[in-house]
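Entry 14. Structure prediction run on the chain below.
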Amino acid sequence: MSKNNKLVFLPLGGTGEIGMNMNLYGYGNEIDDMKWIIVDVGITFGDDTTPGVDIILPDHEFIKERRENLQAIIITHAHEDHVGGLAYLWPDLKCPIYATPFTSSIIKLKFEERGINHEGYLNTIDLSSEIKINPFELKFQTLTHSIPEPNSIFIKTKLGTIYHTGDWKIDLDPVVGETIDVDSLKSNSKEILAMVCDSTNILTKGRSGSESEVKGNLIDLVKHQKNRVFVTSFASNVARLETIAAAAKESNRSLVVLGRSMHRMISVARQNGILAEIDIILSEKEASKKRKEEVLYLCTGSQGEPRGAMMRIANQDFPRVDIDQDDTIIFSSKIIPGNEKKIFQLFNRLSELGANVITEYDEDIHVSGHPCLEEMIDMYNYINPNISVPVHGEHRHLKRHSNLAKEMGIKYPMLISNGDILQIAPGPPYIFDQCKSGRQYLDGNRLVQSDSSHMRDRKKMSYNGVLNITCLLDKKMNLKETPIIFTSGIVSDEEHDNDEMVYLLEEEIYKFFDDKSNISKKEKKVHQKLETLSRNFIYKHARKKPLTNISIVHI
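Output returned:
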């Protein structure tokens, strides 16, 4: 390789936002000639602003155009915001994938569900593995997080070593997995050029707390309940699942698991030697024959997902499972920003059914999987990088992280965004280029750009409704019949506003065609004029700007 080689970092997702993590490292002379690796391919989820879209992925066009130089994809752990996009984007990339056993099992399931053949591409590696992917040498270092096998990576090159933390926290007494090996971390951290580090909880002082503390609190809480107990949590938090199973056992309750993702996660964990001690799990039918104080239901749906078990139970739509007066519902999870409205609605619905709802605001029954401020300080003391690159956070998180790096004496605290190409070496770091980045929507079974015309149309329909007008004309462009007008989502039929508005719009359309100055040989112009008239009319009468479709039929 050329003596003018560069080492660069390029985030395509997860920098300036929480979720949808996708990070690229490049080594070589020029961008188009560099060898690349990808660390993580995640997703985020749709909301009220993305009607019809549940899954959102990073725009991968940059690396798709350079896939001949893409050496590998490395997945640090099995959370959706790190692995969820792999099955959708990998078919465009077709490169080797590396993951540790638990994560590899999750990837296999995702590929099989989509009918993707990964034979010869998916490489399952041991914890603490060292692998060479020319021109990179990777050393995996297991940390602690809220899912098994969270890996950080030392990425070694001839120009220096980058430490990529992935998601992490410092849990000195984890329920699942080993604690962080600080001695090993320090011994591998000599002369670290740059640290690319999680920023999620940088705004929270103190420490994130230990899963073992949650275990004791949950067991004690469940023991004091008299009726049935429902606990909902993230299915991916395998340590929490083990804790909930322990709470059931300690309180002499049988465990009932509700929700497909929960069953799947338990199955994958057992395949990898985790959760092997969980007692026999009852079916809903078996549980219905038990007394109330003899069962504990472990449910999906902690974020108010419409098809999650908890929401279905609240809507009285789950077979053989109902809420009775004074049942206890425990939310052993945090509220992800953006989900507040639907979760509070779920809380209220459960309360209306007679349940007692307990959340992390009431009891210490949840800890984060990400590091708080004191843990961040510890990590900088362990690693002491020359360059700090905050990722995995909104801009306010990244800015606070960058300021912390300054306070810690880091020589080059860098603040970058998705699409920035950061030259890490040689020389002082700087953003020397940018590439197109953004979002893709999984719309049905297709990937579409977030700014595509049909997505704009759908948003417009969602907010302003639809207006369809069909005009039947003769050869002289005279109306032969009353215009056919259809509205949806503009005004309510029940209030009879629609009939009156449609009648008045018909009159305006008659006047339009009576005025021959509106008639043009170019039918496109007639369409445009009639669309403008109709939209202006609707805005005047209903203060809406509907998606408007004009059809002209000659008879």
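The chain has a mean pLDDT of 92.
Filed with the rest of this week's runs.
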